[in-house]
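Budget justification note: compute hours in this period were largely spent on complex prediction jobs such as the one shown. Inputs:
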Amino acid sequence: MVSLRRTFAILLRQFYLIHGSPARVVPLFAWVAIDMVTWGFITKYLNAVSGSGFNFVPSLLGAVLLWDFFIRVMQGVTMAFFEDVWSRNFLNIFATPLSISEYLGGLVLSSIATSSVGLIVMLVLATAVFGLSFFVYGVLLIPYLLVLFLFGIALGVIGCGIVLRLGPASEWLIWPLPALLSPFVGVFYPISTLPAWMRYVSRLLPPSYVFENLRAIVLKHPHSPYALFWGAALDLAAILLATWFFSSIYQHAVRTGLIARYSAESLS
Amino acid sequence: MHPAVLTVRDLRKRYGATVALDGVSFEVQRNEIVGLLGPNGAGKTTTINMILGVLEPTSGTILVENTDIAAKRSQVLANTNFAAVYAPLPGNLTVIQNLRFFGLIYGVKNLSARIEALLEQFDLLAFRDTKCGVLSSGEQTRVGLAKALLNNPRLLLLDEPTASLDPSVARAIRLQIREFAAQGEGGVLWTSHNMYEVADVCDRVLFLSHGKILLAGDPRTLPAEHGKDTLEDLFVTVAREPLALERT
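Corresponding output:
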């Protein structure tokens, strides 16, 4: 049976680490704030030079905000996991009654807490400084945010599994994962812009359905009523796949003794 | 009759063609301190890792108070704890943060009171808000021992717990572990390369060599039974000439 107390312990540990650590606090909001400011001015400039009357703020700045939220969710999971990697804490933590589902649950709670900070900062900047109104997206914005959140969690858990399997140095493979996906999911352009093989990949990625349909809503184009369903279904599949992937890697680590001697020296 | 705190039956571990542990069986009874001795690479840490559930045996059974760790991992590990020199607590958390974090994971009741008692017991009150990473190795060892006793474990595993302590602190720690074993309901499995310490602390010792238990008995009488003057002489023989002992 899952213990909420043990899951909460992982969140509390993350709070302890962030509390009073500027090196951990600043990244929670600084990079997303810089993104908002940069893209806010780009959209203002585009509005001025296009002269078409088309408002780039909801389509571009809104897209950047949602994409940054997704990245923060993913990194919220991986950052909490990396704390155990950096402090070489696997033996201490996995020789306890903590189960894998409780551990992953704790990483998800940590991600909710840290990504919420980034989301709030982005919302404040985008709405107060650049006039982004979320009313243009309608009520569908909330379930679409949830689709991005769940996929961010799934990608984060997969990233943790990769680092557990390949060692601490593979951390550098994890940071660029969202950038690797971004061309496929149409953050800034319609999926129809892509060549056929890339469109096939897009169909397997939940964020594609989010950006494609929110763009359609902003442009007042017809949008697919099934998009949300497909996004959610793919999310569910991604979460199950990610959990299976991490559990399999963990079982392999227990079989080979990797958990007990996990370090950069033993894995490279 | 209470069940043994720890029962290990025919434990084996293979890494490909390499046999790390070859049919090890032993028990640790309530209120007993058992020393697990042997040269480097004999299989001591492998055994401890398997009891802690972080290394899967190729075959064999591990029971803590008759509960199989393979079947009920969380339940078994809630009643087990350990301290090892190679597993310091995260240096980026303070002493009290580490104890609170692990206390929650082990489900310790009245956690604040338990932490205060352990801070006092291990002379850590002055370091409660100090990050573990800046403590001396001796202080870190004491924090590790405080963590190991947080949940009042039935089974306490100590892998060279006094390796980085000065003789005075080491003696105090040995006394505390003896008190833990004598007064509580737990048993202790202790590894050490300090034979003086082993003879002082352990009720029984097991000598491991090449993944097998070669000798077992009372550390105070075992050397004489094998024609040696001291436990250290016996250890050296186990390390250098295990076959000679197998024949006796």
